[in-house]
């Protein structure tokens, strides 16, 4: 890559993601898992790994390589990235079994709480020369009966047109392309932003090294992240993708769903509009 700007390093974004995760677990509380269930989950997890070692005849050098790699994941702060890319999608699908309302997807490692609160028609905080085609994303938040949810919050975050998230890359202003949009009395919102670029897992860290070792690609399709919440309703966490987007069929994080693909409409001025409505079930 030829660039005059410092590019984000795996270690830099990993450390920030680890700090963000530690803060979020303090907010969300403990799992309350019993000793009996811990025994069962840990025994089954170990047995699954033992089976691979036996059946694939894993060698001592391979075992030591894994040990070194695990140490590097911790040192580089990449546990949130690695776990969210390769495991969160299954946890989300289990949770989705008992959920109604809008389809969810994984949160990933780059959510930051406490962003600027904005009105129902809002432009996200962005740089004066923010790169990328304009995107006007609008819709309505309703309950299961179709009633509009006024004062609902859309907690929104996305990568910029280079694929970088503010808070996790150098030289991006704090809060860039993040915000909490509050719906109007009809439950409506309209967010002006830019089209994000696809996201590449940092290639200079241990997660990137694992992906390269296996010959996989390190890309997620371009996406928007949001949480939608309203009093008395279950909060949803989801992502929205773009029809025809590169990597849509091979997301490294396995987090795409057919219901979550926007079909943006190109406008005469070169920008795009996209519409998506959200439905929340009772809490
Ligand atoms: C991302 O941007 C993301 O959304 C997920 C789930 C994992 C890594 C980077
Ligand atoms: Fe993301």
Question: Overview of this structure, please?
Answer:
- The chain is an alpha/beta fold and 283 residues long.
- The chain has a single domain (10-30, 78-280), classed as Sandwich (Protocatechuate 3,4-Dioxygenase, subunit A).
- The protein has helices at residues 10-28, 35-56, 60-75, 79-86, 88-96, 206-214, and strands spanning 117-118, 121-123, 134-143, 153-158, 178-182, 188-194, 199-200, 219-220, 223-229, 236-242, 261-262, 265-266, 272-275, 278-280.
- Strand 12 and strand 13 (272-275) form a beta hairpin.
- The longest helix is centred in the N-terminal third of the chain and has 22 residues, at 35-56.
- The chain starts with 9 loop residues before the first helix and ends with a strand.
- It binds 3-methylcatechol (MBD) and fe (iii) ion.
- Belongs to the intradiol ring-cleavage dioxygenase family.
- Keywords: Dioxygenase, Iron, Metal-binding, Oxidoreductase.
Mean pLDDT: 95
Uncertain segments: 1-5
Categorize the overall geometry. globular
- In the CATH hierarchy, the architecture is Sandwich
Distance between the termini: 47 Å
The CATH superfamily is Aromatic compound dioxygenase
Number of domains: 1
**Backbone CA Rg:** 20 Å
């Amino acid at each position: 890559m030829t660039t005059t700007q410092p590019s984000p390093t795996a270690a830099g974004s990993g450390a920030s993601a680890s700090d963000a995760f530690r803060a979020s677990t303090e907010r969300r509380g403990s799992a309350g898992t019993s000793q009996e269930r811990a025994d069962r989950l840990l025994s089954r997890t170990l047995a699954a790994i033992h089976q691979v070692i036996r059946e694939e005849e894993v060698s001592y050098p391979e075992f030591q390589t894994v040990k070194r790699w695990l140490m590097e994941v911790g040192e580089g702060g990449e546990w949130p990235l690695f776990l969210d890319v390769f495991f969160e999608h299954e946890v989300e699908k289990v949770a989705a079994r008992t959920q109604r309302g809008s389809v969810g997807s994984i949160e990933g490692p780059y959510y930051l709480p406490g962003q600027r609160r904005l009105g129902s028609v809002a432009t996200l905080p962005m740089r004066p020369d923010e790169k990328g085609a304009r995107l006007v994303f609008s819709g309505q938040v309703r309950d299961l009966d179709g009633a509009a949810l006024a004062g609902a919050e859309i907690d929104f975050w996305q990568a910029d047109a280079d694929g970088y998230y503010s808070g996790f890359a150098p030289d991006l202003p704090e809060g860039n392309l993040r915000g909490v949009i509050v719906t109007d009395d009809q439950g409506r919102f309209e967010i002006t932003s830019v089209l994000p670029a696809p996201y590449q897992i940092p290639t200079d860290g241990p997660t990137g090294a694992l992906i390269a070792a296996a010959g996989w690609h390190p890309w997620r399709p371009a996406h928007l992240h949001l949480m939608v919440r309203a009093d008395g309703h279950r909060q949803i966490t989801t992502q929205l993708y773009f029809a025809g987007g590169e990597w849509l069929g091979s997301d490294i994080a396995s987090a795409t769903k057919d219901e979550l693909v926007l079909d943006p409409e190109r406008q005469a001025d070169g920008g795009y509009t996209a519409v998506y409505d959200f439905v929340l079930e009772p809490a």
